[in-house]
Design a protein that fits this description.
There is one protein chain. The chain is α+β, with helices and mostly antiparallel strands. It has one domain: Roll (2,3-Dihydroxybiphenyl 1,2-Dioxygenase, domain 1), CATH 3.10.180.10. About 15% of the residues lie in helices and about 35% in strands. The chain is built from five helices and 18 strands. The strands form three sheets. The chain has an eight-stranded mixed β-sheet with strand order 2-3-4-1-13-16-15-14. An eight-stranded mixed β-sheet has the order 6-7-8-5-9-12-11-10, covered by helices on one side. A hairpin with a 2-residue loop joins strand 2 and strand 3. The longest helix is centred in the C-terminal third of the chain and has 13 residues. The protein is globular. It starts with 7 loop residues before the first strand and ends with a strand. The structure holds zinc ion. Zinc ion binds next to strand 1 and strand 13. The site of zinc ion has 5 residues, from strand 1 and strand 13.
Length: about 325
């Protein structure tokens, strides 16, 4: 059955200080900071977007650095793990790189792919999966050699005590197929199930529910490439008894939000117009970008946002 969703679009999490966030996701993981903006619902907080060289859908990891927020707890009813895809041959490189940087990954083989598991400096659970076949390209000009670099997402894990309602929702409304099952993990896929088209539903019977806060994922967004795809899926979500928002213009994409039956906040997001709608593709992420309706508040926002900088000397908020 054809789905109007073609995979993961972005994952948004809550972090502490933006400098620590940039030092890790850009400096260690080698992702490009492709957009520096503000949280459109709380504009005194940044919204940082990382990705491949273009910030392609399926590679975008984004953060709200909420420095005064409590620490969260990663548990059921959340995205428990966000996994990135690298070439299989790059796993020894990453094991060494993470070890040297003071992160101590454990290595496991899952569905035939080597997987490094670790946590970021705020406690967000991450994995780097050595994928056999991922035609996407890593950023060519970053701190990690392109041959080893992150191509984008591999999968996300949805953590739940009761997998049935979420599993039914994924199959019936998102029209995923079940590709494999192992222990407490059921792998749902969009399309061919390539890296970036995978959602693992993981049953954790004894784990308490998660608590939103620093170190947890806020939501996961799925790719509905064109606005008409988004409307079709939105209608299916509503027909399935859930309560999606209206389409919200996020400027770089159009979004619809709702909570899936297992409690995780889901978003639908279009591929267009994309991050280069307001910045030249070569200059992405070099200045604070505000959506047009917040430009009038720019000088006030520049006073309230905290300072951070990139290794090339580019600094924010100005
Ligand atoms: Zn989002």
């Amino acid at each position: 059955m054809q789905s109007n969703i073609i995979g993961l679009h972005h994952v948004t999490a809550m972090s502490g200080h933006p400098q620590r966030n940039v030092d890790f996701y850009h400096g260690i993981l080698g992702l490009r900071l492709v957009k520096v903006s503000v949280n459109q619902d709380d504009p005194d907080t940044y919204h940082l977007f990382y990705g491949d060289g273009k910030g392609s859908p399926g590679s975008a990891m984004t953060f709200f650095p909420w420095m005064n927020m409590r620490a969260g707890y990663v548990g059921a009813r959340q995205v428990g793990v966000t996994a990135f895809s690298v070439p299989k041959t790059a796993i020894p490189f990453w094991q060494q790189r993470l070890e040297t940087a003071g992160f101590h990954p454990s290595l496991e083989e899952r569905f035939g792919e080597p997987t490094l598991m670790f946590a970021d400096p705020d406690g967000i659970l991450l994995e780097i999966v050595g994928a056999a076949d991922d035609p996407r390209q890593a950023w060519a000009d970053g701190p990690v050699p392109q041959e080893f670099g992150i191509h984008g997402f591999h999968h996300v894990e949805l953590w739940t005590k009761d997998p049935e309602p979420t599993g039914d929702f994924l199959s019936q409304v998102f029209r995923t197929a079940i590709a494999s099952h192992s222990g407490d993990r059921t792998r749902h896929i969009f399309g061919a199930g390539a890296p970036g088209q995978i959602v693992d539903l993981v049953q954790l019977s004894d784990r308490p529910n998660g608590l939103m806060g620093v170190g947890t994922v806020h939501h996961v967004a799925f790719r509905t490439p064109m606005p008409e795809d988004e409307l079709i899926v939105r209608e299916a979500v509503e027909a399935g008894g859930l309560r999606p928002t209206e389409v919200i213009d996020r400027f770089w994409f159009k979004s619809v939000y709702f909570r899936e039956p297992g409690g995780v906040l889901f978003e639908l997001a279009t591929d267009t117009p994309g991050f280069d709608v307001d910045e030249h593709a070569e200059k992405l992420g070099e200045k604070l970008i505000l959506p047009p309706w917040l430009e009038a508040r720019r000088s006030l926002l520049e006073k309230s946002l905290v300072h951070f900088e990139l290794p090339n000397g580019v600094s924010f908020p100005i």
